[in-house]
């Protein structure tokens, strides 16, 4: 097994990976920026190396400094976590060139799936359904033509997109040009790549994704699905597993398609295939995330499989310890991402000092966090500070457990999304499970109407 792993990330995912390494008896090296001197991941790792200034481009995206830190501290592998360099094939190649193992898929498959247009082309070749659209990057005239032929509304999406950025909904031809330019600008800003493509806007879809686990010996299994339809501005807020609002027949199709896709592209790590599902249970490939995901914990809860530890073992070259038949569902899980944001102020990030913190506990309650009392949340990074994951035998029991957990959670000093989630967990449509990706927007509208979210 690896002797020492550098974790090229920060926040709760860095902490999560350090814990997995420790359980496997692997030494850990944290990297941190000058803005993260107080960060928890720095304290929990066996060693910590400062890799630059607070701005991500100077530190967590600084390939040279990260690889140098890994080599000088005697690491034999790098885990990239999510965000930052996790889906950057050049980084993965550089890591391997320096004689280290990149804990993720091989760089060429990452490259293929990292560009959404290339990914869509691969899926068409593999026989997996995709959303009607341009299926390639387009210029303004081509974009207008494609939109005209598939019919409005359409989405303009960044080819290199991620984290819900670089996406614009266009309702009519008149709106197309300004939104096209906006999407391109945002794509350039976030991904240094201004390529965009056109996709049919699927109305009121569910976002259902399949967790996969593949090794370097051709074994491919799925770990069931997650319903990630509770999104605000294309960013996930609450996730659950399994999904109760689609048929078993459709689930089987999603698993089969996801496995077929992984085999076709030669995928060799843990990963996720995201699908859109419409009202008539048509399903479409949306993208593949070639990394561990924020919401991997709900799948860990319902399957009792440690995704991060397995990801490390797979990267080392070990064959999967499981066959498909070994993977069972033991219950229901929900995850609430707690963000330092102010729901009463359009969810504006609200960094600052946490004066007091109380996290819930008890049977079936998991907290993955990077904060502690007295910690100051940095304005430089993502506003997600903590995740609450609840697990129970039935979904209703799980909802009750999550309500209780959120009721107990105290993050004093900064505004968070806790109360927003708590109210949402009481909404009849959520309880019934019949929600789609437009639910949160409607819910925010309801809250505003009732004077509960004053802008
Ligand atoms: P998921 O939530 O399914 O794991 P997301 O797409 O929401 O995936 O991204 C997870 C995290 O990584 C978020 O913090 C997001 O902001 C960040 N992220 C995703 N893609 C990129 C990217 N291409 N560049 C920078 N950050 C990204
Ligand atoms: P990202 O890489 O930023 O996560 P995705 O392609 O996964 O981008 O899309 C993010 C979200 O946007 C999806 O989860 C879904 O809610 C919405 N979305 C994406 N494509 C479509 C589409 N064609 N029709 C309707 N909604 C979509
Ligand atoms: Mg996505």
From TrEMBL:
UniProt keywords, alphabetically: ATP-binding, Biotin, Fatty acid biosynthesis, Fatty acid metabolism, Ligase, Lipid biosynthesis, Lipid metabolism, Magnesium, Metal-binding, Nucleotide-binding
Residues that span the membrane, as ranges: none
EC number: 6.3.4.14
Every ATP-grasp domain range: 120-316
Alphabetical list of Pfam families matching this protein: Biotin_carb_C, Biotin_carb_N, CPSase_L_D2
GO molecular function, one term: ATP binding
NCBIfam families per the UniProt record, alphabetical: accC (TIGR00514), PRK08591.1 (NF006367)
Quaternary data: Acetyl-CoA carboxylase is a heterohexamer of biotin carboxyl carrier protein, biotin carboxylase and the two subunits of carboxyl transferase in a 2:2 complex.
Protein name according to UniProt: Biotin carboxylase
